């Protein structure tokens, strides 16, 4: 990790003060799947109830310019785990089972060097069974959830993975839909948090909600039935997936159900007396899904932001982010620092005293001081943030300027985010010097990806 003058020194003093009692802070990182910037009450949502996350924001810090690492699932997760942005991270394809390599270093491996106990609960997406990418080969002591992304499309699957063994749900065999496995995942995460242990822990909870398939327990959907004008969009490309009879009520119920699970985690920390020594972060892997059955326009899922999942516009990559740490993170605070998923590795390493284990060439930096209210104002305007996808789209942000290139043949679009957060007016013609500078930064940020190999799967299936 590269020191940043006063910023680094302030963060170091803050960390020393926080750990003076001899205990390293625990870290809980909760990530939703396809949750848009506008899906939570604390970010302007007025149709979906998210009381626990709204209270988390009231008791903590709400970030208004926090970004994912990518506008799609697998790359975002790879960036989060490795600290390399989209032009350098190892997993860039989104087929679902492309594996991290043995030589890749993850956040979990970094924290283990500082004595952390590590657990992952939910969707992984960085290596199917019997590959180098499975969580237990990438620094996680405990794993319970889905390995392949396509597997995570089912909330009533007949098995999940517990470490490297199948954990069956016989009550869901032969198409039965009895156990909503998201709830089991959350229960296992709470068990990990509540377990007696002498070491600090890193608990990564990667929920699949509100990604398709769109379904939720009836007790969470029922409060919304009859509240919205309903239609059932024809989506023939989704043949084979369950589609709800009331899509809007179901979408709202999914998010409210996820909200209850987050509350369960926060309650467990309080009941175990761990809250004041635990940093909890809630965020999403990318922007909201654009498909009609998710009703993104009805719910204003990305607020005023342009675009959706898969887009390099703000709606695809800017995500809700809440930091909660009673006694450390300022209550009711709002912060507009631009940062992205590549920064979490260095941030958590500094928090846990594992900075020496962070690879020297990662793209992220520590933003720990921001969580504690002592961030360096100069950092907000001086950093370049980068995004790309395998389809040829790429984007970069430098201060107020945001560049978007929709394909390798497209001209660069330029937006002034201070004046135009909705990216409605392309001002590239008026600022050729800025365009030239951003072109150079974009080109310098890309390296060729390693082979994106999807492992063989059983006949008729996408995953093992």
Descriptive tags:
single chain, 464 residues, alpha/beta, 14 strands, globular
Question: Can you describe this structure?
Answer:
There is one protein chain. The chain has 464 residues and is an alpha/beta fold. The chain has 12 helices and 14 strands. The strands form 2 sheets. The protein has a 10-stranded mixed β-sheet. A 4-stranded antiparallel β-sheet has the order 11-12-13-14, covered by helices on one side. The protein is globular. The model is unreliable at 1-21 (pLDDT under 50).
Question: How are the SSEs ordered, and which strands pair?
Answer:
Blueprint: H1 5-18, E1 26-32, H2 51-59, E2 61-63, H3 73-82, H4 107-112, E3 117-123, E4 142-146, E5 159-162, E6 165-168, H5 181-194, E7 201-206, H6 218-221, H7 247-271, E8 278-284, H8 314-317, E9 321-324, E10 333-335, H9 344-352, H10 368-371, H11 379-382, E11 384-388, E12 394-398, E13 401-405, E14 413-416, H12 432-444
Parallel strand pairs: 1-7, 1-8, 2-10, 3-4, 3-7
Antiparallel strand pairs: 2-9, 4-5, 5-6, 8-9, 11-12, 12-13, 13-14
Helix pairs in contact: 5-7
Question: Taking strands numbered 1, 2, ... along the chain, how are they ordered across the largest sheet?
Answer: 6-5-4-3-7-1-8-9-2-10
* Total number of beta strands: 14
Rg on CA atoms, Å: 21 Å
Question: Level of helix content?
Answer: 25-40%
Mean pLDDT across the residues is 92
- What oligomeric state best describes the polypeptide chains here? single chain
Low-confidence spans: 1-21
Per the principal axes of the C-alpha atoms, what is the gross shape?
Answer: globular
Largest sheet: 10 strands, mixed
Count of discrete alpha- or pi-helical segments spanning 4 or more residues: 12
Order of helices and strands: HEHEHHEEEEHEHHEHEEHHHEEEEH
Structural class: alpha/beta
Distance between the termini: 37 Å
Strand content: 5-15%
């Amino acid at each position: 990790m590269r020191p940043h003058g006063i910023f680094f020194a302030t963060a170091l003093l803050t960390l020393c003060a926080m750990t003076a009692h001899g205990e390293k802070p625990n870290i809980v990182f909760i990530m939703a799947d396809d949750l848009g910037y506008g899906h939570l009450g604390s970010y302007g949502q007025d149709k979906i109830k998210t009381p626990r996350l709204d209270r988390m924001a009231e008791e903590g810090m709400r970030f208004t310019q926090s970004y994912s690492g990518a506008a799609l699932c697998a790359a975002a997760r790879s960036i989060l785990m490795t600290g390399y942005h989209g032009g350098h991270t190892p997993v860039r394809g989104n087929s679902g089972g492309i594996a991290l390599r043995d030589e890749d270093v993850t956040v979990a491996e970094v924290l283990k060097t500082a004595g952390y106990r590590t657990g992952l609960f939910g969707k992984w997406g960085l290596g199917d069974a019997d590959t180098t990418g499975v969580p237990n080969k990438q620094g996680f002591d405990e794993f319970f959830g889905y390995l392949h992304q396509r597997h995570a499309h089912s909330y009533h699957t007949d098995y999940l993975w517990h470490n490297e063994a199948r954990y069956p749900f016989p009550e869901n065999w032969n198409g039965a839909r009895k156990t909503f496995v998201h709830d089991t995942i959350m229960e296992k995460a709470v068990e990990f948090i509540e377990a007696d242990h002498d070491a600090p822990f890193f608990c990564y909870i990667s929920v699949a909600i509100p990604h398709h398939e769109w379904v939720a327990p009836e007790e969470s959907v029922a409060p919304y039935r009859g509240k919205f004008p309903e239609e059932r969009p024809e989506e023939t490309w989704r043949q084979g997936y369950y589609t709800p009879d009331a899509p809007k009520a179901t979408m709202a119920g999914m998010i409210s159900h996820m909200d209850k699970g987050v509350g369960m985690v926060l309650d467990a920390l309080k009941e175990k007396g761990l809250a004041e020594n635990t940093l909890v972060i809630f965020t999403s892997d990318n922007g909201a899904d654009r498909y009609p059955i998710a009703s993104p326009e009805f719910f204003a899922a990305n607020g005023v932001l342009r675009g959706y999942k898969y887009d390099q516009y703000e709606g695809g990559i800017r995500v809700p982010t809440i930091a909660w740490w009673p006694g450390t993170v300022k209550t009711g605070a709002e912060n507009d620092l631009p940062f992205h998923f590549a920064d979490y590795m260095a941030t958590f390493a500094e928090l846990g005293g594992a900075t020496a284990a962070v690879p020297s060439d990662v793209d992220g930096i520590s933003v720990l001081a921001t969580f504690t209210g002592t961030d360096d104002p100069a950092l907000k305007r001086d950093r370049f943030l980068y995004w790309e996808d395998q389809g040829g789209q790429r984007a970069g942000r430098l201060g107020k300027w945001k560049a978007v290139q929709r394909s390798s043949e497209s001209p660069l679009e330029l937006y002034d985010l201070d004046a135009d957060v909705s990216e409605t007016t392309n001002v590239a013609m008026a600022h050729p010097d800025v365009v030239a500078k951003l072109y150079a930064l974009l080109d310098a940020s890309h390296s060729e990806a390693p082979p994106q190999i999807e492992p063989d799967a059983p006949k008729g299936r996408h995953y093992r």
